[in-house]
Structures are given as structure tokens and as C-alpha cells.
Design goal:
Elements: H1 3-17, E1 25-26, H2 28-35, H3 39-51, E2 55-58, E3 62-65, H4 70-115, H5 119-135, H6 141-161, H7 167-183, H8 187-199, H9 223-229
Antiparallel strand pairs: 1-3, 2-3
Length: about 230
Amino acid sequence: MSLSNQAFTRIRHAIVSGDLDFGERLSEMQIAEALGMSKAPVRTAFFKLRDIRLVTIVPQAGTYVFSPGPEDVLEMSTFRAVLEQAGMRLSMQQAAPVVLDALEQTVDRMERALSRDNWAQYETADREFHEVFIRESGNSFLPQAYDLTASSITALRVRLQGGEGGYRTQSFGEHKQILAELKAGHLDKAARVLEDHIMIINESGLILPPKGTPRAKARTRSIQEYKAIFAE
């Protein structure tokens, strides 16, 4: 893996996992030092992260972790719902047995993770559940389109998990219902449950940064903090 891809992967994980805050300013120099590489691959990684909307690059000001407002979340979730519903219908036409088997496996993994209160494993299985529809759709354009918001949505969901309430339990129940409807041949019902499942993030009460400038939380970390975040 190239240095720029390494930097991209590790910075992306830090944003999605919540180690880096929405709206905070990213220091190219200090991140490069923390990762043990020059600034060039980190700069390239920033451009790649910008392309999937995880960072905002402001000329003459710096690079900031994305800072979504309610309007942004509505657009992202609507876009994702459209893609996943299309992927569900196509994948069930193309490879229904493969889809159902893959969904069964991810639901089993989600249940085990939930029983152990292991959110990292739950989130991985949750993400893979949704990716089944895209991967098995038979349409080569869907994965690229899906990637535009996949990381951003995951970052929001991770932060939802950190709050109080039964978000995980509700989420798991909806995944089981989607699978049950598909196994019963109720494609339209499954699609409606999937849409509601995706769009519920707009009613979650997740506290979002102020809409507007990405510098709303322009905090810059110390090199020690970056080293702790990016420690192997």
C-alpha cells in the first residue's frame, strides 16, 4: 500500500470512529509526523478525503473535518436510500440466494456483537449488511456512487451510538425485519423498511455542529494527541 493510501486509510478511520471531531482543523505537518511520513502523502490523502466529503479544504485557511448540518444529513441519507433501494431490487433479481445468505451471516454477527456490547464489531457487520445490496447489484456504477456518502453516514452512526437510548436495539430489529421481508418475498415491504431505517437518522436527535463555515470548531490538536490517535 502506498504512503498516501496508508495516510488516507488511517485518517479516514480516525474521522469515522470519532477520534477526530466534526469541524476540527487538521494539521498536515503534525499528522505527517505522527504517521512517520512526509507531508506529500498526507496532502494527497486530504484530497482523497475531500472527494468522499470527509474533509473540507479551505484555500488559505486549512483542512477541516467535515461538519454536517441537518440539511447535509438529509441530503446524504436521501441519496443513500435511493441507491440502496435500487441495489436491493437489482441484487434480489440477480442473485437472491447469495444475497439472503450474506444477510443471514451479517445479522448473526450483529446479534453476537450486540450481546457483547461490542459496537466496533456491530458497526462492521451493519455496514456489510448494506453493502451486500450494492455489491450484488450487478451494476458497476453503484459502488462508486455509494462510496460518496458511505464514510460520512458511518461517522454519523458511530456518534449516534455514543448517545443514550436504544439506537442499537432498534437498528438491529430493523435489519432483522428487512431480512424477514426479503425471505418472505415481500420486496416492496423490505424496501420501505430499508428507507425508514436509513432516514431515521434525521429524527435521531444527534447534535450536529452549526451550519455554515467548516471552521465552527476550528480546534487544532497537539502532536502528542495526533500520535496517540495514530498509534499502531
